Amino acid sequence: MRADHRAGGTAADARSVTADGPPAPETGLLTPVTDDDGAPFWEYAARGELRVQTCTDCDEPRFPPRPCCPHCQSFTAHWQRTSGRGRIWSFVVPHPPLLPAYAAQAPYNTIVVELAEAPRIRLVGNLVAAADAALNSVDPAKLRIGAPVKAVFHRTPDGPTVPRWVLERP
Ligand SMILES: [Zn+2]
């Protein structure tokens, strides 16, 4: 009977029951909001490819994605596949006060990576031990400006697949 089923728990109750176990390390982390210009970036990331919007007329890569080339004003562009390799250009090690989900993993790192094929393109992300590892899975003492890194792709539970970074020489 329906009443019996409801007594067994609503959908919301079911979620709270599953939450009784250890929480997923990324519960509550923010996920990117996609837009039309950047949609291909996330679609390629979901396939494990790091691609950069590139002007078809002057061949200049650009980021973040936008309709017009800032160098030659062309509106013609394509998505150039990269090797996914780069170097740490800068980093920070956040400490509380932070949003609760981030405070739970602090200290972790946020890095800025310059891409090997397009050094003027710099992406913000996290250096992790593996694609699905926690934000604090790398000892902050291992962070070095200039360290070679490689993109890995992490499927977020509520948002797009996001590039993260691992050290080329852990
Ligand atoms: Zn151009």
Automatic annotation (TrEMBL):
This is Uncharacterized protein. It comes from the Bacteria. Residues 42-75 form the ChsH2 rubredoxin-like zinc ribbon domain. Residues 79-154 form the ChsH2 C-terminal OB-fold domain. InterPro entries: ChsH2_C, ChsH2_Znr, NA-bd_OB-fold, Thioester_dehydratase-like. It holds the Pfam family OB_ChsH2_C. Gene3D superfamilies: 6.10.30.10.
